[in-house]
Amino acid sequence: MKSRVRQLGVMLTAGLWFIFPQFAAAASAPAQRLVEQRKADAAKREMIYLTKEELVEGAKKEGRVVVHPGMDETSIPDLVGAFKKRYPFLKEVIGARITGIPAAQREVLEMVSGQARVDSFSPHSTHWSEYAKHKLILRYDLKTMAADGQFKVPSGMIDDSGVMIWTATNQGAIAYNAKVGPEAFSKGWDSCLDPAQAGKFTVDTKPNVLAWLVPAWGEEKVLSYARKLKGNKPIWNRGTTSALTKLAAGEYDFICGAYAHTAQRLLKKDPTLAIKLMIPDPFPVTFNDPNAIYARAQSPHAGLLWMEFLASNEAQDIMDALDPGIGSFLVEGTVSSKWVRDRNVSLCGSGCRDKEEKFMQRIAVEAWELPKVGATAK
User: Fold this and answer.
1) How confident is the model at residue 120 (pLDDT cuts 50, 70, 90)?
2) How many Å apart are CA 113 and CA 95, to the nearest integer?
3) How far is residue 214's CA from residue 358's CA, in Å, rounded to a whole number?
4) Nearest 5°: phi and psi at 5?
5) From CA 47, how far away is CA 25, in angstroms rounded?
6) Are 200 and 218 in contact (CB under 8 A)?
7) What is the pLDDT of residues 76-102, one digit of tens each?
8) What fold characterizes domain 38-167+288-322?
9) What are the two backbone dihedrals, phi and then psi, of residue 170, each rounded to the nearest 5 degrees?
10) How many Cα atoms occupy the beta-carbon half-sphere of 34 within 13 Å?
11) What pLDDT score does 22 carry?
């Protein structure tokens, strides 16, 4: 009897919509007016607002996409495979990573000349000014699209510019040789200044991690700390991976400022490595792997779907599985989201990430008296 009543209800409702189609038009009118207003507002700011339906329909017409994400290249095949399953109408998805400053510079030059064949790409931090100067990023109103549910990305991932998203995270920690024990590092960052540790630890001459402390400490305190750090006779090193390898071999006791996710990745490959992590207070965290749409993209809609996918739990799980800790701390369940929980975080986001190069320059040249950032110290 109940089933019959439900059927009658469905038939009656369908009949009303058929007889009075104006009901359907009236119901959708407010939503349509909102979209039109959003598009008009975006246009005034020289931006583009699209609905999810427009994104999907546009991507179907494009049928392919070329992406240059910034995460570790080993995860790209799995991400591309999962993305194609989600959007099977994309017959070709080409993914590759642009590695190193020279390659990034070449990509910028190709973009400026219009020779680049990429849709979604990861802007390189050393060329921020070039992307803006040459208008290389297509200006979608991602903040408003996300707020309206048209572009499903956590709002915190979207850069202040509104045209780029940050899909990953990097963090700084103190890594130590397991044979040493954690007692020596109970004071966190101050442990690196302990005279008893003089000459027993290493510091990267590219001081990203210290630069990420600026939001919590301020520039002058970071510089003061860097000077004291130099006075404690560190062993200078360039590169977290090489430093961790030497740490595991016992060449020094600890690293004052190591990428936490890099340590986790090495331990995943070889759990027997004598490496342990101590999360200091404050805990320096920064956004990583920016993604945007190239201004002359041939498949911008598919590129936006790719960016949206990178922010999904599915993609974040893939990234974390291969590189634990690289996932965004804004996505629940990632290793990074667990690390930051209930901690005093120094977040190097907008207003810091774009000044990171300047901060590092002050630390390396002013405080450490090195010729440049990343220099091989004697």
Assistant:
1) very high
2) 22
3) 12
4) -65, -40
5) 28
6) no
7) 999 999 999 999 999 999 999 888 888
8) D-Maltodextrin-Binding Protein; domain 2 (3.40.190)
9) -130, 150
10) 12
11) 54
Q: Give the separation between CA 186 and CA 183, rounded to whole angstroms.
A: 5
Task: Please report, for the chain, the start and end positions of each structural domain, with discontinuous segments joined by +.
Answer: 38-167+288-322, 169-286+332-367
Place 377 in a pLDDT band, splitting at 50, 70 and 90. Answer: low
pLDDT at 9 over 60: no
* Residue range 306-355, pLDDT digits in tens: 999 999 999 999 999 999 999 999 999 999 999 999 999 999 987 888 88
Q: Is the dihedral of CA 247, 277, 262, 256 positive or negative?
A: negative
For the entire predicted model, the pTM comes to 0.86
Cα R_g (the chain), whole angstroms? 25
The residue type of 346 is S
CA 306-312-313 angle, to 5 degrees, is: 145
Under CATH, domain 169-286+332-367 is a member of which superfamily? Periplasmic binding protein-like II (3.40.190.10)
* CA-closest candidate to residue 240, choices 219, 263, 223: 263
Question: What is the C-alpha separation between 99 and 342, in angstroms, rounded?
Answer: 34
Q: What is the pLDDT of residue 72?
A: 78
